[in-house]
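Running this now, will post back.
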Amino acid sequence: MKGVQLFTFEGNMGDIFSWASYQSLIKETLNTIVEFRRAEMRDFYQKTQRRNFDNKFLSEINQCDFFAISGGMFFDVRWENSHTGTTLDFSDEFIEGIKVPVFISGTGYYEPICENSLASTYKAHGKFERFISNISKRTNWHITIRNDGSYERIVSRYGDDFASLFKEIPDNGFYFDKYITPYEFDEARQTIGFSIGNDSFTTDEAAVADISKLNDGIAKSVQLLVEQGKRIIFFMHIPHDIEVVSQILQSVGTEGFRRNVILAPYDTTGINAGKQITSYYKACDAVVAMRLHANIISIQNFIPTIGLVAKGMVNGDRISALYSKLGLKDYVLYTDRDDNCLDKHIVDKTTKLLEDPHLCIELESKAMECILQQRDAYINELREFFTLNKLMKT
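Update: finished.
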C-alpha cells in the first residue's frame, strides 16, 4: 500500500520519535508493506508557502491508499487567516476532494499566546470548531489527539459534547524502538540527563526574568551535582536548545565542562539519529526534562525522570497533564513554587531518585503497560476503520 504522511520530519528530535513510531504502527495494523510518501508540514506554513493544500496536493493524496496526519502540534488554534484556524489550512473544497481514508493521529491541541486581537482569536476558535464538526461527520476521517492534556484543554474551551468528537491515544513517541543499547562511557559514574528548552515562554518582559532564573538555577544545580561526582548529559532536541545549553554552561566553567559534562549528539535527520540519542538517554541514571519527548523517551525506557515545568512556560501543563495521566504526578517539579531555590530542588529530587529509583521505575513500568494496552486498542480501532473503508482484507 501507499500513503501520504503529513508531518514535520526533521529539525526536531521529538518529531523523529513520533513519525517513525507511527509508520511502524500503521505497518503492523495493515500487516503489509507500506510505502510512505512524505509531505513536510513546514513546506505548507504561511511564512514559507513552498507548497499549498491545493489540487496538486489533492491529486497526490488520491493517488495513494490513505492520508495520514500524525503527531505534532497541528491543532494550534491561532491562525485567523486559515480555513481551520490551525496550520492545517484545509478549505471545504480540499476536504471534500479527499476520497481516501484520512486519519489524524495523536496530534496536540493548544492555545498559544496570540499576538492578534481577542476578536481574531475567537474567529480562529470558531473556524476550528467548524472544521472538526465537518470532518467528524465523514466516514473516511478518523481523529485522535495525544495524552498531553489536549483533551482537557478542548473540554475547557468547547465543552464535553465537542470534546467527545476526539479520542485520546498515547503520544506516538511511546512506541519508539526500545531495543537500543545504552551508550557506554569509559568511566563508571552516575549520570544525570538534562533537556532544557527556552523557546516555550511568553513573549513579555517577565519571561526574560523567568528564563534568566531558569538558566541560573540549572547551571547551579549542574555545579552542585558535578561536585558530588555526577556526570551530566545535555540533550538538544531543536536548534534553539544549542543556544540555551551554551548559556547554561558559561556558568559551569571550562574545566567543569571538560571533565564532567557531555553534549549528546545533535542530529535530527532520521531514525538512526533517534536511535543514537536514545542510547544516550538510556545511559542516564536519572533525567530532568522540559521537552515533552525527552520525558516520553525516558519514561518509555524506565529511566527515573523529573518533569520540569518552568515559570512562564507556555503550555507547561502538557508535562503536568502527561505525568498525571501516567500516575507520576509526584515526579513533576514546578519552578514557580520557589524558583529562587530551583538548584536545591533539582539536586534534592534527583538525589532521592538516585538513592531509591525503584518506586519511580515501578510506576513507569505500570504506565507503559497501560500505554501498550491503549496502543493495541487503537490498532484494533484502526483496523475497523480500515475495514469500513475497504483497506483491510476481511
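The first strand starts at residue 2 and ends at 7. More later if anyone needs it.
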